[in-house]
UniProtKB/TrEMBL annotation:
Ribosomal protein in keyword set: no
Protein known as: 7-cyano-7-deazaguanine synthase
Requisite cofactors: Zn(2+)
Gene that encodes the chain: queC
Native species: Thermincola potens (strain JR)
Any GO MF annotation of the entry: zinc ion binding
Amino acid sequence: MEKAVVLLSGGLDSTVCMSVAQKQGYELYPISFLYGQRHSREIECAKKVAEYYQVKKHLIITTNMDSIGGSALTANIDVPEGDENRSEIPVTYVPARNLIFLSYALGYAEVIGAEKIFIGVNAVDYSGYPDCRPEFIERFQQLADYSTKAATQDKREIKIEAPLLNLTKAEIVKLGVANKAPLELTTSCYRGGEKACGRCDSCLLRLKGFKEAGLKDPIPYEGLL
Ligand SMILES: [Zn+2]
């Protein structure tokens, strides 16, 4: 069975991404990060999702990106209310996060002999983060092909797969349901409370996705949502 590294945050998209890799018949090697995020709820969700898939190993890497700061997710900056009309990249962007995460995943894939890395980035219903776009994934692939012993000496390309890249949030939700992904174990809220806030960018995108898919989100929200 071929191996695949899956970047697993514990959110909706990365969990659906896990389900895609599983459907394709890969042995799953999820990797999650304690990167100095202000709440640990997502990592607890990632652990549950990894357990659901009965993976052989769930790698959790600690890397203190809060020492760089510059994001509402790692520094003492308020998480803003969601705003669909915003034209600038919001303060929830974490500087170079996917570049750093993919770099770890690439090194891990090389060590365990995985042929693919799955990442659940999405460039349709998203917050405008530059490291979620197809241009970024394509260029990271080019960089990866020059970065490892696997690619240069052994001529073994490690392929970056972003199966959700061009899907709407509703399509991602439907795909997850079709693949029996454990969406009830995931979290998307930037605020990390016991219940999702229902007001941050990430909650609004998720709720919009379920609504458009004609489905009810299985996770609890604050208030009367
Ligand atoms: Zn929220």
